[in-house]
Amino acid sequence: MNTVGSKDVLTLEEASQLFQVSTKTFLKLLREEDIPARKVGREWRFSRSALLTWIESGNSRAYASVEAENNAYFDQVAPVYDELRKGCYGNALRDILISRFTPPAGSEVADIGTGTGYLAKGLAKYAGKINAIDSSAAMLEVAASDFLKMGLTNIEPLAGDAHDLPLEDASQDMVFANLVLHHLSEPTLSIAEMFRVLKPGGRCIITDVKQHNHQWVKQEKFDLWMGFELDELNAWFKEAGFIESEANDLGCICRTSNNAGMTVEIPMFLAIGTKP
Ligand SMILES: C[S@@+](CC[C@H](N)C(=O)[O-])C[C@H]1O[C@@H](n2cnc3c(N)ncnc32)[C@H](O)[C@@H]1O
């Protein structure tokens, strides 16, 4: 619910809403940029007009709008996403992942950035419960309608941000995130969130594209990252606190085409880690 309205003095939550980012992302901005803010006791307070002036003058506008653009893009493609996805990666990717990381019976599993539920639908055969999380309402709507049609009653579609997961601490046995990391403004924050929601011994399984040089994915697909390097992923997993972590080539590709009709095949990685 939007509570910002026309109030002049805003709380942290309201200021985050104004910027269209999670409170965690806003706190990071607060630490790293010169945002006009005041602390009253332990609470942050913001002047709406000072924030708006700051947004107008700084590069914060670009920062805040990337997440909104990303969401708008997925809201728009949701009705045709499954068709698009089949051209990019088929069911082999899901089969490989689920055969290597089969959720134990009765387990609770999260699929972050579930989209239309590609992974969640496969995981539903094995896990006790799947939390299918996405920030795009339209993608989640398609997913929820498919789950209903397929009789998959153990999947719960949840609106939420990968940077601020709507899940309790230490509540998940496994967390999957397929091809969402490159859409996130702060992948490290999201990896820390995945760590938070895992039970001790729980496993994090992230798959995405390896670093590439196809700049147009940023403008045409609203990707925020041109893939990732294995070393950088290894460092991020360690930093989040994961043990037994490793990032390797997955042996699958993601195919994508630009508006000029050029199709490229980008190799994917698999990054895994265990919460101690
Ligand atoms: C390329 S699709 C992948 C969907 C699905 N994981 C799959 O394998 O088919 C990326 C998904 O991540 C979602 N997404 C992007 N940013 C997100 C965020 N900050 N929090 C949660 N979901 C996000 C998009 O709405 C979209 O559904």
How is the topology of this model organized?
Blueprint: E1 9-10, H1 12-19, H2 23-32, E2 38-40, E3 43-47, H3 48-57, H4 60-77, H5 81-88, H6 91-100, E4 108-112, H7 118-123, E5 129-134, H8 137-149, E6 155-159, E7 172-178, H9 187-197, E8 198-209, H10 216-220, H11 230-240, E9 243-257, E10 263-274
Helix pairs in contact: 1-2, 9-11
Bound molecules: S-adenosylmethionine.
The site of S-adenosylmethionine has 20 residues, from α4 and α7.
Describe the structure concisely for a colleague:
The protein has 2 domains: 9-58; 71-274, Rossmann fold, CATH 3.40.50. The protein has 11 helices and 10 strands. It has helices at 12-19, 23-32, 48-57, 60-77, 81-88, 91-100, 118-123, 137-149, 187-197, 216-220, 230-240, and strands spanning 9-10, 38-40, 43-47, 108-112, 129-134, 155-159, 172-178, 198-209, 243-257, 263-274.
